[in-house]
């Protein structure tokens, strides 16, 4: 037999472990940095499971609830938001065909379940042992409790202990870590200690320029950086001899993780779950690490690599050390899985008492006795449990019977029975009633309530959509022609719906909905910025880059603009450095501190005025400059010229700064010769370079030095030039690409004929102050950025004559008098800004003026409508007041709800605008324009269902989970938010990276503002076409079959509405759902 | 005019009569409770009415006023449950005996005290549990106290003086004779602990007042040392407690030890001392009532660690408990602050190690009382527990306590008796009792 190579064996173990970690990471969602906030489902990785099963997993791993508390659903029932009929329908699958008779009345099983739901009779309640609060129904309760005693089988203490031990043994490793077990058994705080350590290290390591003093050694990766620094700490978490132990850890994080797992003795079949539990202890930080590890081109990841294996290696080291320490000190056993299991089996009484003590379920005297035994390592556990059995258990039994009797009395009241009748009811009947209640605990109510809530909303929405068009308020056509004043395209976002509705109400304007990136996948760099933004959905990739550049006729102003911008930037940097320096703040507070009083008072007392004043000041110092975009791709010669120009600028700078030459002595020949020499990589100086250099007075040594600087410091090499060239060639689109983009966009939205003289491509962005979530208000389809670059790109492409010619060949004729215009609506102020107005033909001035006027009116009406949603606005505001109010909110730095438009989203309509035109959808519906007649192959529908629908579902689920359990899936109150590492926020100074949306975003006080419901997709398309797509795409099957998304179709063939069932069949919708 | 010698008997007779008549209402707990509270109110009125006819003791009359008030609020804080009827009647009996002991002549007063001890011993014996073996020490302490009281009646000085001082250390707890205090506050049934926490120290101070001026130097040194040790010991033990009544018992031990130190070093028990005893007793009574409100809802022997997040579910309770905690931490404008400051300012030692110890113990009290309140009011709210905010009687009880504590903090001390610390220095330089006291201790 051939001997096994140990190195190969180790490597295969590492690979296996990496696979296990990857699977373990499924339970946590990726976390994008805050600056590109991406709405997503926090349980996205589990969408392959049915919704209800995922809810259970979420509870198991994250401890999160997936449904609202029963009290809130009951409130919905009281207010009519949930209708009784829908509740009965949702309850129907659970109802058994049984009944009991109480007095003269027959009580069916369904009535009991319904009472449980509507009156909250099954909420978990702990009955105190010796309750002394007076209850008016005490006499009946006593009688019923006594009556139950004959039927009541209170479990024996030993049996209960046995069950608890069995349960905990089964849970250990699966949904209970050893650290958690120690905390529950000994009252330690191991999980919290480990979390604190990990937060500390993650916060320092993952920082992206926020910290004044960055963590040293980050380039080695998280694991090694931690090893280097943690080895210098003095006994972290009380771990003895930690320096030596950390120093002795293996070089590979995989090996360290394996060693910790071995030390803890976690069986191989439990390791995946065990690691999942470890990750879900800090889902925020782990989620961000997961995202970064998958983004290999992310600059911070390239510089400071991090991954889940490294994270877990550190976490498990702390866990194994602390578990070992605790188990040895408390029980004198090894902190291993098998030893812990053996302890539970061999000392069930002791284990039971310890657990009860920590959970606060022991009477105080017993708690003290347990503490005494624990500290003195006494052997009196048996004696205590014996006394507990004779003293406490009978009282528990009485309390449990009393609790049951109270619930039965409450049931009788709910069923409008006289509770006294229970006293005469047979014991067996009472027991039967109680068993029915017991078998329907509050934890099972969520799915029923959710279905009823959804059904009520869906019925109302579908009834609205089925309203006959004559009953709607639809504006008339333009007099004398069927051509509209304008057509405008908005993002599918729910915030566009009110604006579109109001714009349409001002005159014959047509509106369309399309994903806000407008089919333009671009990486964009704004003028004067140093970083690109990715203007496309995060699930996609871009090939083309677009830059914003000053318009050519403004060349003379560019240098002035640049220099002033530089001054402003330098001022900001100086202030920042003074604030962050170790010494200067002491002086700065005294000397400049008062100066900060102005912005503080201005922003607090007069936010609108202050904002106007600072904007004016900014414009005065650095006036805005008209720009355009590099939409067209450059020819090879142009590319070379542009590259050369960039290089020349660098060479001139080096000659000036390092060579000491004045501008007048720097000749073009010298610059070009120096550039060529730096690029070709030769060591010997060529005569073509030496000659102009001598003329300029440069020695050969200086020349060599300058060449070296150019190569080393400015990377002026052939390889770098090639890279730059490649980058420049990515800039812009070819005519073919532009044609394809415009063709796809127009056909997909159904804008192919009867084009107006003005077509507005309207993106959206937002304005807010002191808001770490500002990118969450921007366009999700544009990667959490404002969408104006995409709108400008599409408008420029559509105005390109060459593109129009090619489109015409594809039978998509754009009239010659149609001009595409780019704009952006600010969703916090509802104002629309139009771009590139220089390019509007003079013939369209009147059209433009009319459009601007109508946009202004639509904007005001939208503000008015939005103001009615804000809780602090009690009276409807007039136009001026509404405008002023929303503007003030957008600049108010204490405002926690600058916009509040995206919450309350519920449905996604893919269809013609005729389906929704004239309907007030309350800003709750995503609207995607789609004309099935234009898409016989279903290709466009395929894109819509797998693209925009996914984005809508992510937004919907983000809101859903943030609303149902804001502490776990949301990010808690904004009041406590602190930005950390420029990547996210923490609650207070020390917490997990908070997932999801803030409490103020989804809640209005204690009541959800966002009614949590799963997305309803309504598609106007033939069912066969949809079926084919569902069959083709797994993600669609997951959505519809696992009940993540509800699907309803309006079949254009027979004009009938159908609902898609999770079983894969279509059911005709006639009346009620 | 009423004969002054009758007044103590009237004061003791009113609650005793109330107790004697209470069996008529035995089957109606609500009425019995109302009756008992009414008797306390009448007692308070009698005390106020007859105060002018009584000889003012060195510590003033404040404690006399506070006794019926405390008895009443401790009763109001109880649930109307039949299990507590006996404790209500006993409250009246103890009130009667306490008023008798405070107002009668020394010999009769001692007899009253002996009866009180007897009752407590019987009660502690009845409520003894094997899980709380330390209660034997408590029983022993009160038995010793009763014996000491007997000795004061039958023995001659200095034995009688020694016995009297020892009896004081049991009533106004001092290490190492504090077990009686601990046991009474943790084992007595119903509302009795919340009444006893004022009754015993009040009786102790009343007994100590005539002795204070007569203490010889070695006794002063010994008692000072014990007082400081008790202050530290009580604070440390309170810090380590997880059970509320025990925490309050140790906390009150620490506070009363502070008083001991001040009284023995100044050799006087002034109305300022009475203010301190009254304020500490009242605040402890308030906290015990507040804890009783929790026990009413979640069972007699509920583990405090099992209760949290009450701030959102029981807001009235949360506000009043917070105010009581502020008072217990010795913050102005409550009585504990006024009493503590009064003691420190009247202390002969401008700055000494003793004062440092006292201040440290005071700071420690802020720590453990805040931790207790924080644990109950904040943290995760348990959804499986039923939450019911204060009943009307409970609300009234806590409001009276808070207002009384507030009043004690702002009312001039001279209202309750002449403050000897304000007398001219010449009058105070040679305490009158020194000579006679020396004689008493040396005879």
Give the oligomer, counting copies of the same chain as homo and different chains as hetero. Answer: heterodimer
Contiguous helical run count of chain A = 44
Coarse shape of chain A:
globular
Name the average pLDDT of chain B: 87
The largest sheet of chain B, given as strand count, sense and whether it forms a barrel, is:
none
Number of domains of chain A: 6
In which order are the strands of the major sheet of chain A placed?
13-12-18-19-20-21
Label the overall shape of chain B.
globular
Ends distance of chain A = 69 Å
- The chain-level mean pLDDT of chain A equals 90
End-to-end distance of chain B, in Å?
41 Å
Q: Biggest sheet of chain A, in brief?
A: 6 strands, mixed
Instruction: Kindly state the number of beta strands of chain B.
Output: 0
Largest interface: A-B, 25 and 29 residues
* Rg over CA atoms of chain A: 34 Å
Report on this structure:
Chain A has 1073 residues and is of the alpha/beta class. Chain A folds into six domains: 70-152 and 392-454, no CATH class; 179-348, no CATH class; 482-550 and 735-898, no CATH class; 552-625, no CATH class; 636-730; 904-1073, no CATH class. Helix content of chain A is 51%, strand content 9%. Chain A is built from 44 helices and 21 strands. In chain A, strands 13-12-18-19-20-21 form a six-stranded mixed β-sheet, covered by helices on one side. Chain A has a five-stranded mixed β-sheet with strand order 4-3-9-10-11. In chain A, a hairpin with a 4-residue loop joins strand 19 and strand 20 (1056-1060). Chain B is an all-alpha fold and 443 residues long. Chain B has one domain. In chain B, 72% of the residues lie in helices and 0% in strands. Chain B has 19 helices and no strands. Chain B has helices at 7-21, 29-50, 62-76, 85-103, 106-126, 135-154, 159-171, 179-187, 192-212, 217-240, 244-266, 271-298, 310-313, 315-328, 335-346, 353-377, 392-410, 425-429, 432-442. In chain B, helix 11 (244-266) packs antiparallel against helix 12 (271-298) and helix 14 runs parallel beside helix 17. The two termini of chain B are 41 Å apart. Residues 422-443 of chain B have low confidence and may be disordered. The A-B interface holds A 69, 123-126, 128-134, 359-369, 371, 387 and B 79-81, 83, 129-132, 242-243, 295-307, 382-386, 388.
